[in-house]
Amino acid sequence: MASTELKTYVTCSAILYAKFVIATGIQATKTFDAGGRPPEDKNLPLAKGRPEQTYGLVQDEKLAKARETELRWRRIVQNDLESIPIGLLVFGAGVLAKGNSTVHATAMIAYTSVRCFHTYAYAHALHPHRALCWLFGVIAMTVGVGNALYGVFTS
Fold it and tell me: Which of 51, 56, 79, 140 is geometrically suited to a Cys-Cys bond with 36, CB 3.0 to 4.6 A?
């Protein structure tokens, strides 16, 4: 039977993966809305009914807001790529290290929650909420690292 830590890790990983897939999907549609795709993508289903695809190089006041939204979603995805892989590595190592299982599961749940809220806050331009979510994510990861080190050196 799988441990609580492993179940929590797998569940949090699945949630973070689903969140990432949804965020990249939204970012893709926002890129089409801003005309930011290569010209050869004009025949793709997502291009239908959207501006001409020119890598976003055409100066158009109507597209300025769409470009801003697209850049916001691009940053959301980039931020996920900067944080989530190392988070999964840290928490996965912590599962193997056998630290305090309650501390580790709580840190994983906290990290997963604040990463989801971070995306929402970033998408809706909520500040300082976005920064606080980032900070709490770092704290949760630090707790995970500390707990993993505790497990490795006390077992």
Answer: 56
Specify whether the CB–CB gap between 15 and 114 falls below 8 A: no
Residue 97: give the domain boundaries.
4-34+61-154
Is the Cα dihedral 116, 118, 123, 125 positive or negative?
A: positive
- Domain CATH number, residue 121: 1.20.120.550
Say how far apart CA 110 and CA 92 lie, in whole Å: 15
- pLDDT tens for 46-104 read 899 999 999 988 888 889 999 999 999 999 999 999 999 999 999 999 999 999 999 99
Which pTM does this prediction carry?
A: 0.92
The answer as to whether 105 is a domain residue is yes
Which H, E and C letters describe 115-154, residue by residue? HHHHHHHHHCCCCCHHHHHHHHHHHHHHHHHHHHHHHHHH
